[in-house]
Design brief:
The protein is α+β, with helices and mostly antiparallel strands. It is built from 6 helices and 7 strands.
């Protein structure tokens, strides 16, 4: 028997079937969508937010974190969506799944107005939370029309999802409704399931105060977008260093 007609062993056949099945499994199923006028092929089953990020399109988020279940509570990530030529509507990009032929606008006038309103409400509720100040600065807010509060919780739910999904503690949850809504342990008592892992603190935006320290309610920072106003404390004219002459 010549080498050219050598019979294939059973292990070779099984290996070929395995490799073929593996290649078929690795085939990426895509759908075609349009984001801000760009025609893109994105992975089927992905959300609008992940599809946009894959192609470098920025959509601001507050309550979203990778590897945690999307919540959509902050609404900052809203986009304008049109399915198959239908009437455009607004929905959260972190929870809405892409579909074939979908047209998405991430920076239409309607979306910008909605995000500015949401950012204004957010920073009026928690002016001493750095994330709220950053969002307000990037939205170009110069003043706040709503009564200012001093909350350190923005109800993003990150701590709850971290506790449930990653740490398996199940020690936190939302209680109350409306203005009385807050994050709490059951009956405000630490349950035995709490691991004291501090995972909730790790993901909480409220533990990071603005760069210049705690602010008075009503004061907006905006330093992140007004770089020319940053102080020069070094001879090299570099801002943002940590030398002793830096007034921040």
């Amino acid at each position: 028997m010549t080498p050219f007609n050598k019979p294939r062993l059973t292990s070779d056949i099984d290996g070929a079937h395995y490799n073929g099945a593996k290649e078929k499994q690795m085939e990426r199923k895509t759908v075609n969508i349009t984001i801000d006028g760009r025609s893109l092929d994105v992975e089927k089953g992905s959300t609008v937010l992940l599809a946009a990020r894959e192609f470098g399109i920025h959509i601001p988020t507050v309550c979203y974190m990778e590897n945690l279940t999307p919540y959509g509570g902050c609404r900052i990530c809203v986009v304008e969506i049109s399915d198959n030529g239908g009437k455009p509507f607004i929905d959260t990009s972190c929870t809405y799944e892409v579909k074939e032929g979908m047209v998405i606008q991430t920076r239409s006038p309607r979306i910008i107005r909605a995000r500015k309103m949401l950012a204004e409400l957010l920073v009026s509720s928690a002016p001493n939370v750095k994330m709220a100040q950053d969002i307000a600065a990037r939205m170009g807010l110069l003043k706040v029309r709503f009564p200012m509060e001093d909350n350190r919780c923005i109800l993003c739910g990150l701590c709850i999802r971290m506790c449930y999904e990653q740490m398996d503690g199940k020690a936190l949850g939302f209680v109350g409704r409306g203005m009385g809504r807050k994050v709490s342990m059951p009956f405000e008592v630490r349950p035995e399931t709490c691991r004291l892992c501090r995972g909730c603190d790790y993901v909480c935006p409220g533990v990071i105060i603005p760069c210049q320290g705690v602010k008075e309610p009503g004061e907006l920072c905006g330093r992140c977008v007004r770089i020319e106003e940053m102080p020069d404390c070094c001879p090299m004219g570099t801002f943002g260093c940590f030398c002793e002459q830096n007034p921040l």
